[in-house]
Amino acid sequence: MMTIPPYPGDPILMTSPTASPSLTLTGLGRRFGTFRAVHDVNWTLGPGIHGLLGPNGAGKSTLLAMLAGTLPPSEGRVENGGQDVTQSMRAHYARLGYAPQSVDLPPHATPRQLLAYMAALKGLPAREAAQQAAGLADALHIAAKLDTPVGDLSGGMRRRLVVAQSLLGQPEILLLDEPTAELDGFEKLALQSILTEMAPRCVIVFSSHIVSDLEAIAEDLLILSKGQAISIGQPETLAAALEGRVVSLTVPATAIDHALQFGTVTGRKRMADGIRLRLVLNAGKAAPPGAIPEAPSLEDAYLAAVAEHRA
Ligand SMILES: Nc1ncnc2c1ncn2[C@@H]1O[C@H](COP(=O)(O)OP(=O)(O)OP(=O)(O)O)[C@@H](O)[C@H]1O
């Protein structure tokens, strides 16, 4: 009978934490055939929560998969602590937590089994694995379902399980692809609290197409449109750049098309006397008669930037 030697320990998995983890993206791009899904993205990230904001199909998942090292770039590179991740995969993986957007979890396995399995892959000793899994299950409110087959869990519960596995082993780089997609307001707050606590020692990249989810916690944002980084900055700076260009205007439903000539609609509300539009005026365009100046928001900045880029 073949005997398997005892596991000797892995020097990479046993390395001590990095003093200040970092990710650097340089000229990063990915093609699928001739289609450019991501093009020339440059971004330097230190510890903290970084938002990746973009509409459906903008390239968020493609970008995150390149950061994770599971999808090789067609152009440019990703460096973890100054080392190209394609040249140092094991060291990168040892420091990484990744919650992809879509994961096919085995329906008959339980969260307890899956967390134990992922913890073992990450090289956590059994006792440490059990402690971390219990702590994460409590924090993400899945403790009551730890022994329920995954196939019987709600979508939001499965999403939290995928996030929980990414947090095992206290990663230094954490990539969360639309982690709030199926979460209710209470669960979003629980996740925000965990991430805020980790932020001083972890590079966290959090993708979403929901502005308010990122505005609540991200210290900086990259807005992606058609694979290109069209804005990078702090949420308040991106909003402030629209100072003087945001107005509201109440018009009859039949006059909406006319109002569109003045700028991008970023909000719309039915009122007793018509439709109240929120508009980001086109650069250099005067406000229409009756418009009321408004303080710009991050939502205005995001919607206007994407609309201008698409045009
Ligand atoms: N393997 C692939 N082959 C061909 N095209 C692909 C592949 N993966 C992604 N794409 C295309 O790349 C573009 C970006 O897709 P991606 O999933 O990265 O966008 P996303 O911003 O994450 O979108 P969503 O918010 O809808 O999840 C899309 O047009 C998509 O169809």
Automatic annotation (TrEMBL):
It holds the Pfam family ABC_tran. Keywords: ATP-binding, Nodulation, Nucleotide-binding, Transport. One of its GO terms (molecular function) is ATP binding. The keyword Endoplasmic reticulum does not apply. Residues 23-251 form the ABC transporter domain. PANTHER family: ABC TRANSPORTER ATP-BINDING PROTEIN (PTHR42711), ABC TRANSPORTER ATP-BINDING PROTEIN NATA (PTHR42711:SF5). Belongs to the ABC transporter superfamily. This is ABC transporter ATP-binding protein.
